[in-house]
Amino acid sequence: MNRELNVLWLQSGGCGGCSMSLLCADGRDFFGNLESAGIRLLWHPALAEENGAALQGLLADCVAGRIRLDVLCLEGAVMRGPANTGRFHLLAGSGEPMMAWIAKLAAAAQYVFAIGSCAAFGGLPAGPGSITDACGLQYEGEQPGGLLGAGWMSRGGLPVINVSGCPVHPNWVLETLYALALGELGAKALDALGRPRHYADQLVHHGCARNEYYEFKASAEKPSDLGCLMEHLGCKGTQAHADCNTRLWNGEGSCTRGGYACISCTEPGFENPGHPFQQTPKVAGIPVGLPTDMPKAWFVALAALSKSATPKRVRENAVADHLVVSPTQKKTGLR
Amino acid sequence: MSRLVVGPFNRVEGDLEIALDLIDGRVREARIKAPLFRGFESLLVGRPVLDALVIVPRICGICSVSQSIAAAAAIADACGAVPPPNGERALNLMHAAENLADHFTHFYLFFLPDFAREVYRGRPWFAAAERRFKAMRGSAAREVPAVRTDFLRVMGYLAGKWPHSLSIQPGGSSRAVKAAERVRLLALVREFRAYLETRTFGDALENIAAIHTVESLTNWRETRAPESSDFRLFLEIARDCALQDLGRASDHFLSFGAYRKGDSPVFARGHWYQHVVHALDPAGITEDHSHAWLAATDAPLAPTHGVTQPLLDKPDAYTWCKAPRLYGSVVETGALARQLIDGHPLARALVVESGGNVRNRVLARLLEVARLVPLIEGWLQELEAGAPYFAPLEMPRHAEGMGLVEAARGSLGHWITIEDGRLAHYQIISPTTWNFSPRDRNGQPGAAELALQGAPVQAGEDTPVAVQHVVRSFDPCMVCTVH
Prior knowledge:
The complex is a heterodimer.
Chain A: E1 5-11, H1 17-22, H2 30-36, E2 39-43, H3 53-64, E3 71-75, E4 78-79, H4 98-108, E5 111-115, H5 116-121, E6 134-135, E7 139-140, E8 143-144, E9 161-163, H6 170-181, H7 197-200, H8 211-215, H9 244-247, E10 282-283, E11 286-287, H10 296-308, H11 312-318
Parallel strand pairs in A: 1-2, 1-3, 3-5, 5-9
Antiparallel strand pairs in A: 4-6, 7-8, 10-11
Helix pairs in contact in A: 3-4
Chain B: E1 2-6, E2 17-23, E3 26-33, H1 40-44, H2 52-55, H3 64-79, H4 85-111, H5 126-133, H6 139-151, H7 153-159, E4 168-169, E5 172-173, H8 179-200, H9 205-209, H10 214-222, H11 230-240, E6 253-255, E7 258-261, E8 264-267, E9 270-273, E10 276-278, E11 285-288, E12 323-326, E13 332-333, H12 335-342, H13 345-354, H14 358-382, E14 399-407, E15 410-419, E16 422-429, H15 431-435, H16 447-452, H17 465-473, H18 478-481
Parallel strand pairs in B: 6-13
Antiparallel strand pairs in B: 1-2, 2-3, 4-5, 6-9, 7-8, 9-10, 11-12, 14-15, 15-16
Helix pairs in contact in B: 3-4, 4-6, 4-7, 4-14, 6-8, 8-14, 12-13, 14-17
């Protein structure tokens, strides 16, 4: 085990939902688990005792190097407006833009984690209609840059680690921290967008409970229908990088298990899909967003074939909210 | 007279700063500053109507379901949509589960750790409070996240995930509950009830809800030692610290009414003024911009005509928060208001005795916890196998809608206008916007600003602990306040 990791968690232009999600982590003893993994929470806005002057002292100590800052976690977008003054978020009690605090602390930290899609890419506060000039730590949507700049590296030699998601899954955060504590979080552990590959190398489609409907292109037509959500209801699970359907949320769930589309919230720019979120954009009746790594001609051919082969059971259940046709009982035993 | 600027506060949602003018060891005046502006209303205008269901939960990570329920209600109002009975129950269940988890989190992780601070060492209850409630180290702090996580598994079934679910729709829920799942949900709720009854209350929830007078509450507290349950320990701390004398606001209370049964809310709608419940006319709600960094308006505006245009360097402005008023009056909202207006006898008795204050606000949350669990069990029992959870809706080209609901922290309203099938206007008033509003053009301080007046400040305190009690008694959500 390496030395203890000092972790500081701050919030800016976000909703606090990633912290609320973090608290839903598996395990019987949240704080004990962190401790035994060698993670010391210097401060967290929802959990710590100190506030006011005590916190400002702590931040100043981190900036000056009097307290070793191993990991800075930022939740929420960086608020640059108006006119690059950062005045849309002045850190309470300090009169100073949060943007400036983040830059100073990032320079002092060994590693910087963007917690959630707002901190990573800008997220909703940076979406269409935004008047706050919000951005991510090292990205503005898909474009590298953001607050810290495209080539920026932390003292520990990594770019910002983008634990994206809206919100993040608690274990995406914790497993990334644990990997760092074990000395296993190097450049190879991150994908091209700086996301930890332990969750970003999966697709939401993997393990989706609607897979039989997907195979036969038996599609849901309205919310609560059991069928595949890709053809009509806007689901991007075959393209979105995340392991939501193999890891599951709140013990039992995921977006597609909740009856609604994956909106690809781990991807930059998810907030601006260019179509209604719950409606699939199509050209000539074919969804524009095809499954990742699938040649279009093959997808069209296979979709046509599987549609023609859809069993009655799958076709009818797809447009009902509970099973209306059960699987046939085979009389001869399974072979 | 001296001035003290306090902040940031933790264990509140979002960033918060308070300027205090002190005289003779007490707060003379308080000005509450919400220092973060995200501009959510402008993100909504121009969007396809149902996109609101993706955007509004992300206003707030702790009351995201409440925001979704309010948006769904406003859209349903505009469309004339009515969820089928199962859909109504599923929405009630998701909403109540979130509110319950919020109250539970507030009590243990946000409010009580302040009583395990050094300043209270020497009080007879301190050792017990420190053992149990110390931030991140007390035995409750170690148990509660797991209990909360287990309970929120109900959201895994009903909502896909929490926070930020799209199951909540104007036509009901996108997630029908299977028969086997209903049994598992009942088991999860039973487990949560067991924790509440053994550790939190030390009594059956029904017995807590049946405490109807201040005297019977005292009798109940005295029948066993303070350490026998967390509620008793809280009541003992509240008695010793006279929390009933701290943090009184306007004593004008508002509730939009919570959860649905057909056309009416399960917890009643209304406003309590001068010891009487009055019917609520939403037309009496206006917002004042005089002390916010927002473009001024000639008169306070109804939310149907509200605007949100940032304007820094404005004289007299000190926050991003607007000042909502009901018939021009400063109101307080939250669990105390909800239980009071619904007519729970203990809530009535407490308010008649000592008004809105730190003790009564926290007590009302716990009373509501005791009342909500049986309601949740009832809605689960009522789910009807095979019956629909969702009814399709017709989206009008032009319409107006209003969604008035209750989040854990109080009254939450969404007002929308649809033009050409898109959102043309969107205004939101959140519970903490009511409670943590700044002064209005008549100079009336907001509810929490009023509640802070008179709070004691000990020599040498840079973040006075009494001020923290008052602030946290409202369970503020600053990210909602300025969406």
